[in-house]
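Quarterly update from the structural biology core.
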Amino acid sequence: MKRNSSGYTFVELLVVTTIILILASAVMPLAKVTAQRTREAELRHALREVRTAIDKYKDAADLGQIGSLDLKVGSENYPPDLQTLVDGVSAANDATGRKLKFLRHVPVDPMTRGKEWGLRSYQDKPDATRWGGQNVFDVYTTFDGKALDGTKYREW
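Predicted structure, tokenized:
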């Protein structure tokens, strides 16, 4: 008695399912590493963007392009906070009220998914864990994790 049936046997389905599970288990770690690598690249870009804006503010202040009312004594010509880079400052010797702006918006920290950054002032000690509040000399992420290369994100 011959059965003429089309379809797969239970064993064939079991073998195919096992192969798919093995392949999926190999892909998941790769996907996690790729996602982390993407967030690290976004963090590098955001840090570069903010640090460039801080440097442009400092250069403009050193060259006397920022009005004296916007510069605080003891700030070493650094911005008082990140929002100042977005809001802008009055240009020196400009009666039109034109403002110099250095950032369109404060970028989102891809690690914490927030706009809160760790700040360092020029007067802070290099190993300080709190912002002194005088000015913004540098920024860093507040995320406490480690990068793929083993360094701490806070040290970038």
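Helices lie at 10-62, 82-87.
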